[in-house]
Write a structure and sequence with these properties.
Layout (H helix, E strand, L loop, with lengths): L11 H11 L17 H16 L3 E4 L5 E5 L9 E5 L13 H17 L2 E2 L3 E5 L13 H6 L5 H5 L9 H7 L15 E7 L4 H5 L3 E7 L1 E10 L3 E2 L11 H18 L5 E10 L5 E2 L2 E10 L2 H22 L2 E10 L2 E2 L2 H14 L3 E6 L4 H5 L5 E6 L15 H19 L1 E2 L1
Helix pairs in contact: 1-3, 1-12, 3-12, 8-9, 10-12
Length: 416
């Protein structure tokens, strides 16, 4: 097959230059980016991306969630397209590569195909999904979620940011509300390149992560109620310390996650303590437990054991406790054929690689519900992401994009 030719490579310098040029749009305060969704910076980044894609000969479509689709024609007008992309929006203190590498890597593979005169049976569509981060308008992966039927468009339009501005209004304000029906497009396959956002690939000395699964997650908000009291004058036997109850529950979270090692994880990242005064025993705490695993039965086990164990802790301490499921989604198993295309590409190109489970959510996790999907990952320094210090090497970017190119070509079918 023509894709076995290892002389088909992307232009690494051009890819890196594009990444650095996009990073100038919505700069952060410490070397990264603040290009939050539906801001003026997002609109500016979209315009730059549009210019680059049209310069590469692609035609644009935009759906009613603002997702951008750029099409490179195939030789068979009836063949379903192979989609490839990620997102351009960032965290408020985001890095230069999270999401952006997948979008500009997709653009670069089309540019390289143009340079090499490669034609494919299936069209290729380079994609920028709106509001993957969910930092301004919750939840994350919003546009791909509407595309996959997980949310209604009206519900998405009604999402509000911290200032009470609505998603639908802001999408129209920046001029990127398209007219295409969301989810109407049919895909032959979808591929997403992303930085790992974790330390495994770097620690293992691997250049490529072949993503086989995406972790499911469960968020449970826990409210523990005790009694506010003076820390100095309340005898130990007479205390109802909600803070201590939470501490024991957090030990339980850790113990439960460890019991399902190595792939399950658990922690509480959001904690509020009331009244949060130096000399007052906490009378109420609210925290959110985040359990994740690539196996649904493990998530369910962790949820059940935590609720039972936390209830016993509260009962033994004379505390009240309430549980509310505030978020979650089931684990993802990516398409075997697409995963094999990624693995085959890494092997043909001679890159060191390993199977990987994504610990973070991605647009590919939703699109997997409506089309055959897979992900390619490259390392990032110290596993750091969602941070302005996020960093990768040009060589890692090149390796990931070369694998992306060959996986896409396997599915799009080169025409000799």
């Amino acid at each position: 097959m023509a894709t076995s030719s290892d002389n088909m490579k992307i232009n690494a310098d051009r890819l890196w230059d594009s990444l650095m040029e996009m990073a100038k749009v919505g700069p952060g305060v410490a070397g990264g980016n603040n290009r939050q969704t539906l801001t003026d910076a997002d609109a500016e980044g979209r315009r730059l991306f549009q210019k680059w894609c049209e310069d590469a000969g692609m035609t644009m479509g935009v759906d009613q969630m603002g997702t951008m689709f750029f099409r490179r024609e195939g030789t068979d007008p009836d063949a379903l397209p192979v989609y490839v992309g990620s997102h351009l929006d960032t965290q408020p203190t985001g890095g230069k590569f999270d999401g952006v590498l997948g979008v500009l890597g997709a653009l670069e593979l089309v540019r390289s195909m143009n340079d090499l005169g490669i034609k494919t049976k299936h069209p290729i569509v380079v994609t920028n999904w709106t509001n993957e981060e969910g930092t301004r308008f919750a939840p994350a992966m919003l546009a791909s979620g509407v595309f996959a039927g997980m949310h209604t468009q009206d519900w998405a339009y009604g999402r509000e940011d911290a200032e009470g501005l609505k998603f639908g209004d802001e999408l129209a304000r920046i001029g990127w509300k398209g007219d295409e029906e969301v989810g109407a497009r049919k895909m032959h396959a979808f591929f997403e390149l992303h930085i790992e956002q974790g330390p495994i690939l770097e620690a293992e000395g691997k250049e490529i992560g072949v993503v086989t699964h995406g972790q499911g997650l469960s968020w449970t908000q826990v409210t523990v109620t005790g009694k506010d009291a003076h820390t100095g004058s309340t005898p130990m036997p007479m205390r109802k310390n909600a803070g201590l109850g939470m501490a024991r529950m957090l030990e339980l979270v850790d113990e439960i996650a460890w019991s399902h090692k190595p792939h399950a994880v658990g922690a509480a990242g959001h904690i509020d303590v009331y009244p949060n005064s130096r000399n007052v025993i906490p009378g109420r705490v609210v925290f959110t437990v985040d359990f994740r695993s690539p196996q649904l039965e493990v998530i369910e086990d962790m949820e059940n054991r935590f609720r039972e164990g936390a209830q016993k802790i509260a009962d033994d301490m004379g505390l009240g406790v309430e549980f509310e499921k505030v978020g979650g989604f089931d684990p993802v198993e990516f398409d075997e054929s697409c995963v094999n295309a990624v693995r085959n590409a890494a092997e043909r190109l001679g890159y060191s690689h390993m199977d990987l489970i994504s610990g973070a959510g991605h647009d590919a996790c939703w699109i997997n519900r409506v089309a055959p999907t897979a992900m390619v990952m490259c390392p990032c320094v110290d596993g750091l992401s969602h941070n302005e210090a996020e960093e990768i090497s040009k060589e890692w970017a090149e390796a990931g994009t070369n694998v992306l190119l060959h996986a896409v070509l396997e599915k799009a079918e080169i025409v000799e």
